[in-house]
Amino acid sequence: MADSANFTVDQQCVPDMRPGTTGTTAGLTSWRMTFNPPQGTRVRIVHLSGDLVAWPLTKSGGHSGVLLSFQTTAPQGSIRCDPCASNTLLYIQDVVGGVRDGVRAPFSEDVKANGLLQPDNTLVIVVSAWLNTTGGAIHMEPTFTVTYRYEKAE
User: Fold this and answer.
1) What mean pLDDT value characterizes the chain?
2) How far apart are CA 114 and CA 72, in angstroms?
3) How far apart are CA 93 and CA 19, in angstroms?
């Protein structure tokens, strides 16, 4: 089975005070996509394809990193490796601004190895901007097709 979706946000950013940053701004938005499998089954995401488009909403120069990730609702981090994100199926990142006003970051990835969703059958879609020196928000739109299958719940 496959379904498609598009999300959009004008990502506002706040000063980034984390150690090691340059004092610029960062912001994050997430959405939840909840599947409704038949009783006694869970969803496994097998493939993700689409793109992330992003551009600064100001023409004052500067730049910003942009990131898209697809995650399960399992706890953040990993018990297997450090620093890792075992609940994350895919990360996509790029940069906007500077010599590139906007970006289209396409992807088409097999994610079945880590694609079994938690019993809540929820996929979390996250976008973030970081080191934003543009002085404004970053428009971000992930558009994607998620291919999945049902598996017997254990």
Assistant:
1) 90
2) 9
3) 21
Contact 148, 21 (CB under 8 A): no
Tokens of 96: 């906007």
CB contact at 8 A, 147 and 2: yes
Instruction: Tell me the sheet residues that pair with 98.
Output: none
Give CA–CA dist 152/79, Å, rounded.
Answer: 25
CB 61 within 8 A of CB 97: yes
C-alpha to C-alpha distance for 131 and 22, rounded to whole angstroms: 7
Give the residue extent of every domain in the chain: 2-152
CATH architecture of the domain formed by 2-152: Sandwich (2.60)
Per-residue pLDDT of 81-91, as tens digits, reads 667 666 899 99
**Peptide linkage before 83 cis (omega within 30 of 0):** yes
Look up residue 56 and give its two tokens.
Answer: 């600064």
The number of C-alpha atoms within 13 Å of 36 and in the hemisphere containing its C-beta is 0
Rounded CA separation 56/62 (Å) = 9
Per-residue pLDDT tens for 93-105?
Answer: 999 986 567 899 9
